[in-house]
Amino acid sequence: MADLIGWGAKLKYMSRSIDGRTHRLLREVTIAVVEELVYATPVLTGRARSSWRTGIGRQRVGVPYKQPNKPPSPAAGAQRSIDEAHEAVKQRTIGGKSVFISSNLSYMGDLDKGTSSQQPVGGFIGRAVMTGRSKIKEEMANFWKADY
Asked: In 1-145, where does DSSP find H-type helix?
């Protein structure tokens, strides 16, 4: 009987641990993907880099700066997109909600296809997704090594 009570306590601990690790992983993956997207997006005026938006449970629309057609500077606009992602994932209730990382610029798909002279290779969106997948795989490998 004592073993059964101990096993129940261990399961409860594992459950809380899994919830916490899942939440942390979701935060880390979201930030990694947003940073990869922002810094890999070609920059001329900074508008494309600053257009990346992060929403939890819903898609964000619009631009993260006050003047819709011009970010304050390419670096400031990029940092604003990253800061917004950090703010979004601070929520304690991410679990079970979808994370939306999006840009509302009509030409973002073209940039990803390599139409920009700043980045003629393209494919930066897919590379950002692969960054997130790699982070998940790494964490899952470590998860099974955890000592419960």
From this structure: 2-40, 74-89, 108-112, 124-143
Question: Which tens digit of pLDDT belongs to each residue from 42-74?
Answer: 888 888 888 999 998 888 876 655 555 566 688
| Count, residues in the chain | 148
Would you list the DSSP string of 31-53? HHHHHHHHHHS--SSSTTGGG-E
pTM surpassing 0.85?
A: no
Q: What are residue 48's phi and psi, to 5 degrees?
A: -65, -45
Rounded to whole angstroms, what are the CA distances from 123 to 57, 73, 77, 115, 118? 26, 24, 21, 11, 13
Contact of 48 with 148, CB cutoff 8 Å: no
Residues 131 and 36: beta-carbon distance below 8 Å: yes
pLDDT digits (tens, 9 = 90+) for 69-92: 566 688 888 898 999 999 988 875
